[in-house]
Amino acid sequence: MSNPSDPAKPDATGMRRNLAQYGDAEFSVFLRKAFIKALGYTDDALERPVIGIVDTRSGYNACHQNVPDLIEAVSRGVMLSGGIPVAFPVISIQESFASPTSMYLRNLMAIDTEEMIRAQPMDAVVLIGGCDKTVPALLMGAISANVPAILLVTGPMLAGSWRGERLGACTDCRRYWAQYRGGAIDAAAIAAVNDELAPTVGTCSVMGTASTMALAAEALGMMLPGGAAIPAVLAARRRHAEQTGTRAVALAAQGLTPDRIVTPASITNALRTMLAVGGSTNALIHLTAIAGRAGIRVDLDGFDRLGRETPVLVDLKPTGQGYMEDLHRAGGLLPILRALKPMLSLDCLTVTGRTLGAELEAGDAPFRQPVVRPLAQPVYASGAMVVLRGNLAPDGAVIKQCAADQGLLQHTGPALVFADLADLAARIDDEALPVTPDTVLVLQNAGPKGAPGMPEAGYLPIPKKLMREGVKDMVRISDARMSGTAFGTIVLHVSPEAAAGGPLALVRTGDMIRLDTAGRRIDVLLDDDTLAARRRELPASERAPAAARGYRRLWDNEVLQADGGCDFTSFVPPAVATAPVV
Ligand code: FES
Ligand code: MG
């Protein structure tokens, strides 16, 4: 397999193998060969580049059910190009089946990915992911391991249909559930809707976190062009997988490592893409974590400036109307990048070994399509997301203004405070709740440490009694996240979080809160003395205690706030650069 005299050096094929040692290097290779031959490989098979393939199929993960098919196609591409494919497992995370939250497990998957890439001999690795947390986790791990790596996503689901109307996970999950809560549709109807929300394997079919991360990762340069939007069940996805395998062998030969691809300029391209697609707020946290692994700090104020000049161009739910299959038919990411071209750094290297600019030149000719708009006719002109600061969020908060009731973006109203998720669940539908459409719903202790795991609880439900009156949106504020598929005037990621002593912990029911989206502010209208007095009265238990042992202890001690991407302190190298660069 390797150069037995020095396994750290490339062998006769030019490949580098990270061999574990038994003191005697030659014996070490001898032993490994014996075990790999037990798998049925011949010497001829082993004198080739080894391409690891990360297998993230799990019986719990519908979003990854096509992974075995994709591994087969990747393996074919690897073998056609003279390499030998070796699939290996890492943990798999599905949004709906991850407790306490999927975010809590993302860093664990990143650790697993990094160490398995490091531990096993491979010259390049194909990362197969799709569901929300898996793409960030795989990229975080691969960047830290810094072995040549290429990403392949499982691809979006097709849309379903109910009574002639198209629907899909999970914007329509929420829309129909809200109708059911408000009494507009009955139990039989909501059950029929449930059958159609996730009609195929693959990732959620709207511009949620999975779709956003797939497109951002392609813009980052970590995926072959055209790969982000191909639906999971199309033959085109398998062909793309085969090409990914072929390319992985070339990546190995060229030694093209992630540190040459993930740079401040390519992170900026990814952040801009996320804004232009009207993407999920979660993607900001994930891209911050991904950049962090490469020693790049994402500056929130710089990100806000990027937002001011990057309109939403893609007409997909929850901001617009379509589904990912529509974006695929419209050409996928290519027309989006073409529209953004004057704002992109075109000299960024991609996994193709060519620059992003060269790939845009080489892509299919543009054609008329209704999904991706030109810069001059955006779906939403003022930028998908806004960074807020103020006495409620000294380290920042985020609002997805393109998915909000535009009339609520400037709003002052009285707070109704829920101390945590249990309090919210117990009282939100109480008929005696002191709430009007002007009320600002505040949720505390749902941040990275508080819940723990920063659940997608920021989309506080509209109280039933208001829902029956037809109220569809209210201002809501929390230190939580929100699903990328949700819609509403929702301030998220308030940092520092309540459980870490952030000022959100000081808010009481009846305080006046002002959301000034245009002015980039979120404030509670109290003077500093009142806030200081309340801070002194805070019970010590407001500070989350570290768990006694295990992963939870690691989480409690290490997790960074949202503005640090919720990564673990010990896994982030010192920042040597900042993004965005403009
Ligand atoms: Fe996996 Fe939505 S639940 S992508
Ligand atoms: Mg999601």
From TrEMBL:
Residues 48-357 form the Dihydroxy-acid/6-phosphogluconate dehydratase N-terminal domain. Keywords: Iron, Iron-sulfur, Lyase, Metal-binding. Its EC number is 4.2.1.9. Transmembrane segments: none annotated. Residues 371-566 form the Dihydroxy-acid/6-phosphogluconate dehydratase C-terminal domain. InterPro entries: Dihydro-acid_dehy_C (IPR042096), DiOHA_6PGluconate_deHydtase_CS (IPR020558), ILV_EDD_C (IPR056740), ILV_EDD_N (IPR000581), IlvD/EDD_N (IPR037237), Sugar_Degrad_Dehydratases (IPR052352). The keyword Repeat does not apply. The keyword Isomerase does not apply. It is an enzyme of class 4 (lyase). One of its GO terms (molecular function) is dihydroxy-acid dehydratase activity. Pfam families: ILV_EDD_C, ILVD_EDD_N. NCBIfam families: PRK06131.1 (NF004784). Belongs to the IlvD/Edd family. This is Dihydroxy-acid dehydratase. It comes from Lichenicoccus roseus.
